[in-house]
Amino acid sequence: MLILFGILIIIASIILGLIVLIQNPKGGGLSGSFGGVGNQLMGVKQTTDVLEKGTWIFATVVGLLCLLSPAFIPKESANKKNGLIDNISTSGQKPSTTTPANTGTMPTTNP
Q1: Helices (DSSP H) in 23-94: which residue ranges?
Q2: pTM tops 0.90
Q3: 50 CB contacts (<8 Å, ≥6 apart)?
């Protein structure tokens, strides 16, 4: 189920990014990209309204999917992981430190 949410979030984010990139901050937007064809079919005002509504809709969809997806995380896997952690010995014993064995005699020099 989490994979489905992840795929939906990615798709909605890509569409949201494309809608934002299509918009022109000076008001031309989609109608300027098609050389006036948008003016004849929908008009400039309606084009910007559609893009603005699309931005809000896809931003809301991404937000809701991100908020709802943690509710579908399986609870059983979390319990199994905690069980593994509980089985680890935590008796507080420090690892023993060993010194290397002296295998030969080293000449000592006194200054």
Answers
A1: 29-33, 37-41, 44-68, 75-87
A2: no
A3: 42
